[in-house]
């Protein structure tokens, strides 16, 4: 379980998160929506402890991650897969080397074992045979799939997606959404999807929360979000068409 307790994050005088509370049970697929710059990606970085909260806490399976030393934090992070918005692949490394990178840095697996894991993860995202390609030889959708394969390297129980379909064409977006649903079902993982694309929410999420001015203003199913009475939520969900 992920538990946010009165979580606050300020950047100078900018109040990005203002005392948010949220429980994300094991196995749930949660979408966090809101306009660009509202703090959605910051929330993911706090869950990974890439950012430190101004106050409050993030608990992963009952452990306050702010209290962990570096070795303990690495162990927790290995069970959290992060799929970055841009893909964040290393341009100078092949597909194989990108997926293998964290395994080489933070595991004691042999090169033979690493090769087995890399092939297994690439198969899961339907990219068999791409090991020797460079990132600039891949389409945007393929780069996103490599990023997902890399996130799966340590068999995480939690997967964080930062704007997983941004910049992709409609068909590729649907393919990525289908892959996310497939992985969630097969791995029984907890997923947190940060997005401003409602189609992605409807396709991938069981529950949705909206972040507005540093606070959650709506919590419910995607269907309930569609029927929300809050005018801010309705305007976002409908794209201002109502």
CATH H level, superfamily name of the largest domain: P-loop containing nucleotide triphosphate hydrolases
Number of DSSP-assigned strands: 10
CATH architecture of the largest domain: 3-Layer(aba) Sandwich
Structural class: alpha/beta
Largest sheet: 6 strands, mixed
Helix proportion range: 25-40%
Overall shape: it is: globular
What share of residues are in beta strands? Answer: 15-25%
Strand order of the largest sheet: 6-7-8-3-9-10
CATH class of the largest domain: Alpha Beta
CATH topological fold name of the largest domain = Rossmann fold
Written as H for each helix and E for each strand, in order along the chain, the element string is EEEHEEHEHHHEHEHEEHH
Residue runs with pLDDT of under 50 for 5 or more positions: none
Compute the average pLDDT.
Answer: 93
């Amino acid at each position: 379980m992920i538990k946010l307790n009165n979580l606050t994050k300020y950047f100078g005088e900018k109040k990005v998160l203002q005392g948010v509370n949220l429980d994300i049970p094991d196995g749930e697929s949660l979408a966090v929506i809101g306009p660009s710059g509202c703090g959605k990606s910051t929330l993911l970085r706090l869950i990974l402890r890439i950012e430190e909260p101004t106050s409050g806490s993030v608990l992963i399976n009952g452990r306050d991650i702010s209290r962990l030393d570096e070795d303990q934090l690495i162990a927790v992070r290995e069970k959290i897969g992060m799929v970055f918005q841009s893909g964040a692949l290393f341009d100078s490394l092949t597909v194989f080397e990108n997926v293998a990178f964290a395994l080489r840095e933070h595991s004691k697996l042999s090169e033979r074992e690493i090769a087995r894991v890399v092939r297994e993860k690439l198969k899961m995202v339907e990219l068999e045979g791409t090991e020797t390609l460079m990132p600039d030889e891949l389409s945007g959708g393929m780069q996103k799939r490599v990023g997902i394969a890399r996130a799966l390297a340590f068999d995480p129980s939690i997967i964080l997606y930062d704007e997983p379909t941004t910049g992709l064409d409609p068909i590729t977006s649907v393919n990525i959404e289908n892959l996310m649903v497939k992985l969630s079902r097969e791995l029984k993982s907890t997923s947190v999807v940060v997005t401003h694309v409602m189609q992605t929410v409807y396709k991938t999420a069981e529950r949705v929360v909206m972040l507005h001015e540093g606070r959650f203003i709506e919590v419910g199913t995607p269907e309930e979000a569609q029927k929300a009475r809050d005018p801010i939520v309705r305007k976002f969900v409908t794209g201002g068409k109502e």
